[in-house]
Design goal:
This protein starts with a helix and ends with a strand. Helix 2 links the parallel strand 3 and strand 4. The chain contains 7 helices and 18 strands. The chain is an alpha/beta fold. The chain folds into 2 domains: 289 residues, 3-Layer(aba) Sandwich (Rossmann fold), CATH 3.40.50.1820; 73 residues, Immunoglobulin-like (Sandwich), CATH 2.60.40.
């Protein structure tokens, strides 16, 4: 009896040690080890104004393995396609990808974001991409906030967060990862516009938390310019069809029904990543069109297997690959570019030291506002605030308000105002607020 007990302890110890050394040692993350998946729908993670000026409440669906007891689990964000004009977090490929990876032991968040732009032209398309990036960053911050302040109720390993999507969702994920300096997008949008939207971080919710991710999953996406990918940035996995007429495999005008602008597709990003040494797993669907995994079981299986190989590699697993990379098609010519060298990254919060407020730690959203605006900041202290118009008149006063307070501005006229926020610590910040009804 004693020998059996000792043997059992030895086996448990061995399994524990193997699992600690390699996350996939028990099969988890490398194959489907769960039968059922639990889905929590319509979790609110933020809010912001859409292109028409109305407030959009932002939601996501959370997928996790049924009966899972693991306390720290990787998280994959899936962002749907639809040319930034349509699509849904419940699109078939988003549900399929989220479900299949949840059965392997991952958690997944299928994210909605602000849709629509008009007129349908390149300038407004760039703004639509930026809105989607801002919303995805708010979603990532939501889980960091939960892990830091709410006891990690979703049981997320914040060291293993990945972002990805299909078509427009892949474009969003790529720009999230590689558009990290406002000077990079200066040829498309003015600095004043970027400042009003919160730079590259945005003001869609959960300010002052991390947006760090470990890798990017690019399913038929593209980047505005390949040189936005720098040598020290996160790795990616790409799958793309050579006959993609919507988001080109190489360098091509993106065409969701209306020709918009040139984008650098996965083949160009493969060339760039080889040039600068960014890890990039690339699979070519020879002869396939746009997002073939969305309509074909065979292409979906290939996609899941290839992405699985990438993910377990990022987590330090040594399981054999299920889908080997193939040879890319076509020649990708890296055109002449001037790298952005201005160090003007937009930072959500910059610490001023202990017992001090932080630069940019106050956020108002939505901004512009219609009838109400929410004031958020990253500390527990209550604050006083005054809303001042351009003539210097105090129009509204607020006393001892906590973070998350909704300020009623329904009686104010359209225009620009200044919210002056003060704290008992002697710090003061002034935030520009636009009211647009």
């Amino acid at each position: 009896m004693i020998k059996k007990v000792l043997f059992s302890f030895a086996m448990v110890s061995l399994l524990f040690t193997a699992s600690a050394q390699e996350p996939c040692a028990t099969g988890r993350y490398a194959q489907e080890v769960f039968t059922n998946v639990d889905v929590t729908s319509d979790i609110t993670y933020g809010a912001n104004l859409n292109f028409s000026g109305s407030t959009k409440i932002l939601k996501l669906d959370f997928y996790e393995p049924n009966g899972d007891t693991e306390q720290l689990r990787p998280l994959i964000f899936w962002v749907h396609g639809g040319s930034f004009l349509g699509g849904s977090k419940t699109d078939g490929d988003m549900v399929e990808l989220s479900t299949r990876f949840a059965k392997m032991g991952y958690t997944c968040a299928s994210v909605e974001y602000r849709l629509g732009f008009f007129p349908i032209d390149s300038a407004n398309a760039v703004k639509a991409v930026l809105r989607a990036v801002h919303d995805l960053k708010a979603a990532v911050r939501y889980f960091y906030k939960d892990a830091q302040d709410n006891g990690n109720s979703y049981k997320i390993d914040t060291n293993n967060i990945f972002i990805g999507g299909s078509s427009a969702g892949a474009i969003t994920a790529l720009h999230y990862a590689y558009l990290d300096k406002t000077c990079e997008i200066g040829d498309y949008l003015s600095q004043s516009y970027l400042d009003s939207q919160g730079g590259t971080e945005g003001i869609s919710g959960n300010p002052c938390y991390s947006t760090t991710v470990k890798g990017v999953i690019n399913l038929c996406g593209a980047l505005a310019r390949y040189n936005w990918m720098d040598a020290d940035e996160v790795p990616l996995v790409s799958l793309h069809g050579t006959n993609d007429g919507t988001v080109g495999y190489n360098r091509q005008i993106v065409n969701p029904g209306v020709p918009l602008m040139y984008l650098d597709g996965s083949r160009m990003l493969w060339e760039r990543s080889n040039q600068i040494g960014v890890e990039h797993a690339f699979y070519t669907f020879h002869g396939a069109g746009h997002v073939p995994h969305a309509t074909s079981t065979q292409y979906m299986d290939t996609t899941v297997n290839f992405v699985r190989d990438f993910l377990i590699g990022q987590m330090g697993c040594t399981n054999p690959p299920l889908q080997l990379a193939n040879t890319p098609a076509q020649i990708a010519t890296l055109y002449s570019v001037v790298d952005c060298t201005t160090n003007n990254e937009w930072t959500a919060c910059t610490s001023l030291g202990e017992n001090a407020l932080m630069d940019y730690s106050f956020n108002l959203f939505p901004n512009p506002a219609v009838n109400s605006v929410t004031l958020q900041f990253a500390f527990e202290e209550e604050v006083d605030a005054e809303l001042i118009d351009l003539s210097g008149r105090v129009r509204m006063k607020y006393e001892k308000i906590p973070s998350g307070t909704d300020l009623n501005v329904s009686e104010l006229e359209n225009g620009v105002y200044w919210l002056v926020v003060g704290s008992a610590l002697g710090q003061q910040r002034t935030i520009k607020l636009a009211i647009q009804k």
